[in-house]
Amino acid sequence: MTDADAHRQAADAVYAELLERLGEAHPERRLEATRRAVEVLGDPQKAFPIIHVTGTNGKTSTSRIAESILRSYGLRTGLFTSPHLERFNERFLIDGEPISDEALARNWSEIKPYIEIVDAELKAAGKPRLTFFEAVTVLGFACFADAPVDVAVIEVGMGGEWDSTNVADGQVAVITPISLDHTASLGGTVAEIARTKAGIIKEGATVVTAAQEPSAMRELQAAASARHAQLVAQPAQFDVVSAQVAVGGQLVSLRGLAGTYESLTLPLYGEHQAQNAAVAVAAVEAFLGGGAQPLNGELLEEGLSAASSPGRLQLVGTEPTVLVDAAHNPAGAGSLAAALRTFFDFDEIAFVLGILKDKDARGIVAQLAPIAAQLFVTQSHSERARPSEELAEDVYEWTGARAEETDDLGDAIEAARAWAAEGEKRAVVVTGSITLVGETITMAADRGWKAPRVDELPEQPEGEA
User: Fold this and answer.
1) Can you spell out the DSSP letters for 231-295?
2) Are 326 and 332 in contact (CB under 8 A)?
3) In what order do the strands lie in the sheet with 77-80?
4) Segments of the chain assigned to CATH 3.90.190.20
5) How confident is the model over 388-403, as pLDDT tens digits?
6) Do 76 and 95 contact (CB within 8 A), yes or no?
7) What are phi and psi of 89, to 5 degrees?
8) How far apart are CA 115 and CA 277, in angstroms?
């Protein structure tokens, strides 16, 4: 066995060990357990400044864009996101790359005795031991402190106030668009959800928020005022000036907190990604210069043009075109549908759809069905996956359309690809859950689907996005 094989095996063993803990779909509404864990480790989350990102949709893309811009400035960055698509290491990026297997396993080995101390204390107090996500959060902070990084962009797992990442103090708190999701945990109204997400706002921080519904904005304003934080909001303080379809993404012009930036290349599809870029630019302006100094245009162009967001309208195959998108709630599905209409010139689209049990399947289907020529319903291997047979029955009840159904994702995608191959301007879009997208990306590589080149990107219409 080579050293690389041994390190990979050790890293996989860390993930397997963590999976024995209570899953991230069932978070504990507490901070004291994670706070105790980082305390016994010497508070690694205080070793670097933090941009803390929450919201309902766009968190991961906004985080990745901000991290890419920061890296263009020569800063050594950490990026913590969840969930991962293919391998656990993806949750911890250092300088834009997943943490090495060796570093991941070594850091876990070093912190595990302290994690076990806290587990024992919790058990003695009659409380559940650290959950999967609590332990992963502590591991992430330890990895970034060990690297070390100059700045970390930390994406909230769920909510904000009691999310385990909230043991860290972000000098910039970022709020992406808030809508209904995880209502059983976060509340049944946008205002309730916004109140929970506003919990990441810390004393004296700068709060950068995307445009929000009035009820959500009132909650954010109240939280910022109570904590003497400066709130800057879209569209008043920053916004997208224009976005135009371009090969491989779009050209965007953005009005930031301290400057206007023209004709920037953003290699991501969708109006929502231009919006995410605007929020990310404002966040970086707030972090680097307190919002008073414009960014260096060349470095910003470098950072934006290098940004990526795997699993978000990602092209994974050609002949026929296969795209994946991690839309897993109605707002995300609406953004996906809008991007497909604007950024691509397909005559017909087949959706391969798999949705988790705790998601608003009816809302997702309502957004996608109007532009679907064919629906193929399936499921991922997640224990949270909604059974494909049940979803197919619901799709028929909600839309009157009969979807082809199979519980095997590979069979569903091959059926969709066969359908798409029968027409010149047909495409397949796999969506509905992050787990489904992750399995599809792995499948595309394993089955050798034709890898796309820039000159093979799907044809795109001309005009404004």
Assistant:
1) EEETTTT-EEEEEEEETTEEEEEEE-SS-EEEEEEE-S-SHHHHHHHHHHHHHHHHHHHTTSSPP
2) yes
3) 97-98, 92-94, 77-80, 151-155, 50-54, 172-175, 206-209, 230-233
4) 314-456
5) 999 999 999 999 989 9
6) yes
7) -55, -25
8) 37
Tokens of 295: 């960014």
One-letter amino acid at 337 equals A
Q: How confident is the model at residue 422 (pLDDT cuts 50, 70, 90)?
A: very high
Angle formed by the axes of helices 271-289 and 59-72, nearest 10° = 50
Q: CB neighbours of 434 closer than 8 A, spacing ≥ 6?
A: 83, 85, 311, 326, 328
**Mean pLDDT for all residues in the chain:** 93
Residue type, 13: A
Spatial contact of 211 and 235, defined as CB atoms under 8 Å apart: yes
CATH of domain 314-456: 3.90.190.20
Q: Which residue has the tokens 């890293």?
A: 11
**What pTM did the predictor assign?**
0.91
Compute the distance between CA of residue 317 and CA of residue 414 in angstroms, rounded to an integer. Answer: 12
Provide the b/e sequence for 381-402 (b: ≥16 CB within 10 Å): ebeebbebeebbebbeeebeee
Q: What's the residue count for the chain?
A: 465
Q: Residues of CATH 3.40.1190.10 domain(s) within the chain?
A: 3-305
pLDDT digits (tens, 9 = 90+) for 323-380: 999 999 998 999 999 999 989 999 999 999 999 998 999 999 999 999 999 999 999 9
Place of tokens 């409380």: 127
- CATH class, domain 3-305, is alpha beta
Q: Which residues are paired to 97 by β-bridges?
A: 94
Q: CB count, 10 Å around CB of 182?
A: 17
